């Protein structure tokens, strides 16, 4: 039986075999990889400590909300595992590249090793934090939807963001802080708190766009069944 003949996990979701699901998963995966690469650099805006992942990482939760709302928990979880499988493959490719013989004109071997080392630790941090955070995020979206059906989308999106980002940020920062050079408890607290507040705020600001994307996909997704 093909994926297009699957039965949705419950009313209120669409089948993952549509044209929209793989596009969302592809964007989701790319954002995860980009975030982990850019997160290898610690960034300071005066007393504010963060990393380069702040640029696009919050968008992964926007995509995660769309996947959870339209396709359900299992489909969102599949995207999470796929995203980090590709991250693991990227880390493996980087490490293999380190041990390849360098050309005579290549003078950045040490710098490349430093970036790859930090990236690998961030992969571990990201895998742990993102699986925790995105799983909480997806579960909260689906759990609230079972009670509210198609109403109160804002409650599902904000509630899932608040809980998911908290779990993600705590786990990620605890592992990643050392990789970007954070060594004091004060800097760690600032790094963790800022990450949670910033990522949550971005998702709240993005709510109008998230609403429109979800509505558009629901209208165009032929297998979507309205929750009643």
TrEMBL record:
Single annotated GO MF: transmembrane transporter activity
Subcellular location: Cell membrane
Record's keyword annotation contains Transmembrane: yes
Transmembrane segments: 20-39, 45-67, 79-102, 122-142, 154-182, 188-211
Heme listed as a keyword: no
Pfam families per record: Vut_1
Keyword terms of this UniProt record: Cell membrane, Membrane, Transmembrane, Transmembrane helix, Transport
Family: Belongs to the vitamin uptake transporter (VUT/ECF) (TC 2.A.88) family. Q precursor transporter subfamily.
General function of this protein: Involved in the import of queuosine (Q) precursors, required for Q precursor salvage.
Designated name of the protein: Probable queuosine precursor transporter
Lineage, highest ranks first: Bacteria, Bacillati, Actinomycetota, Actinomycetes, Mycobacteriales
């Amino acid at each position: 039986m093909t994926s297009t003949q699957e039965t949705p996990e419950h009313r209120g979701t669409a089948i993952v075999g549509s044209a929209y699901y793989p596009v969302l998963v592809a964007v989701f995966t790319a954002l995860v990889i980009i975030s982990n690469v850019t997160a290898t650099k610690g960034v300071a805006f005066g007393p504010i400590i963060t990393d380069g992942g702040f640029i696009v990482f919050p968008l992964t939760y926007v995509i995660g909300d769309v996947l959870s709302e339209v396709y359900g928990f299992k489909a969102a979880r599949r995207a999470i595992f796929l995203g980090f499988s590709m991250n693991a493959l990227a880390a493996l490719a980087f490490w293999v590249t380190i041990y390849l013989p360098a050309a005579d004109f290549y003078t950045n071997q040490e710098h490349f090793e430093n970036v790859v080392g930090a990236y690998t630790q961030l992969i571990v941090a990201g895998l742990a934090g993102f699986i925790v955070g995105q799983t909480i995020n997806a579960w909260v979206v689906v759990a609230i939807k079972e009670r509210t059906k198609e109403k109160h989308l804002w409650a599902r999106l904000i509630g899932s963001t608040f809980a998911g980002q908290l779990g993600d940020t705590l786990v990620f920062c605890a592992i990643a802080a050392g990789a970007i050079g954070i060594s004091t408890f004060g800097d760690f607290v600032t790094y963790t708190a800022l990450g949670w507040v910033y990522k949550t705020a971005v998702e709240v600001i993005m709510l109008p766009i998230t609403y429109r994307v979800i509505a558009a996909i629901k209208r165009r997704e032929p297998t979507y069944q309205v929750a009643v």
